[in-house]
Task: inverse folding
């Protein structure tokens, strides 16, 4: 093995080559030029002030996951507030923590959320344009005030908003459970976001923005996830979503859980002997002992309905003093439903 040149010797050698004191063979001089095209990639600009640790595939995975979150949260809030609430995901982007903070209004509803067992905190921010209408609907108002107040929440309003945030955190837990079980908890609320310094100013974060609409009012919901908090989940997130694959194999434990849950569901089952139509005049003249003639033969099977759908052909009878039906078979496509 040859001697290793120190930095001074390397500099002297390069100076001698540039000054023409040392001539390189043609093959060796041309070698770097011949190898350059085989690299296949041109240099790309990188802004160290705005690092982007998440790839486009990871951003797409976050988008797919939070589209489900938006639909579920809209349904939950609609049921809780007894009014139509629409939640629609708008953007998923990477930026620095300082850029996110500077984009928020003051005052706003700035919620600090812990996500155990992850390190650090998440941020859930609700715009005043929508948080006050949601609060009024939760208190029973049929129509919120046309212009939401431009002020911070009072001590009496904070517990009400906490209930709305708790619903969102419950849906977030369900969202992340297939990826990793997380426990979200609200640890603080602030009106002025610039007073909260959870991360370094140039720390990269993932920002998911939603549009919330309720009773002609529109506002923004932001979920900010610092990269240092989300880093342990990046590989699992990509594997779970499959980068856009709609179908994935259901695990046996999940299938068993669904079967057990469905086994406890109760459904209405009823047997229809016959259905017919008569005139109002005939209905008013009915008396005890009258006979109604129908087009159905007396020995024709009846129909057993599960819910409102015909499922089986049955024969009515009596078992141990109770009315009962004997299942003859499933209903065919041409079988009568009455």
Result:
């Amino acid at each position: 093995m040859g001697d290793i040149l120190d930095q001074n010797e390397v500099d002297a050698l390069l100076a001698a080559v540039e000054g023409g004191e040392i001539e390189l063979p043609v093959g060796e001089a041309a070698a770097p030029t011949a190898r350059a095209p085989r690299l296949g990639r041109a240099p790309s600009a990188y802004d160290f002030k705005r690092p982007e640790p998440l790839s486009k595939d990871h951003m797409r995975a976050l988008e797919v996951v939070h589209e489900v979150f938006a639909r579920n949260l809209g349904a939950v809030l609609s049921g809780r507030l007894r009014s139509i609430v629409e939640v629609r995901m708008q953007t998923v982007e990477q930026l620095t923590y300082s850029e996110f903070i500077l984009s928020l209004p003051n005052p706003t509803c700035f919620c600090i959320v812990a996500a155990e067992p992850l390190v650090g905190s998440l941020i859930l921010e609700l715009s005043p344009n929508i948080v006050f209408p949601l609060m009024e609907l939760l208190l029973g108002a049929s129509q919120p005030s046309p212009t939401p107040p431009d002020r911070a929440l009072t001590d009496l309003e904070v517990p009400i908003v906490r209930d709305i945030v708790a619903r969102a955190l419950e849906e977030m837990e369900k969202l992340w459970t297939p990826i990793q079980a997380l426990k979200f908890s609200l640890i603080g609320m602030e009106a002025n976001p610039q007073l909260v310094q959870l991360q370094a100013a140039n720390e990269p974060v993932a920002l998911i923005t939603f549009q919330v609409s309720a009773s002609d009012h529109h506002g923004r919901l932001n979920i900010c996830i610092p990269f240092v908090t989300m880093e342990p989940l990046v590989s699992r997130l990509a594997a779970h979503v499959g980068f856009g694959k709609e179908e994935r194999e259901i695990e046996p434990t999940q299938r068993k859980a669904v079967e057990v849950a469905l086994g406890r569901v109760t459904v209405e089952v009823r047997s229809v002997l016959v259905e017919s139509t008569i005139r109002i005049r005939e209905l008013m003249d009915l008396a005890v002992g009258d006979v109604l003639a129908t087009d159905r033969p007396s020995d024709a099977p009846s129909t057993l309905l599960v819910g409102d759908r015909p499922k089986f052909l049955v024969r009515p009878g009596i078992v141990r003093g109770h009315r009962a039906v004997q299942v003859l078979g499933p209903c065919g496509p041409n079988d009568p439903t009455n």
Notes: The first strand starts at residue 85 and ends at 96. DSSP finds ten helices and ten strands in the chain. The radius of gyration is 34 Å.
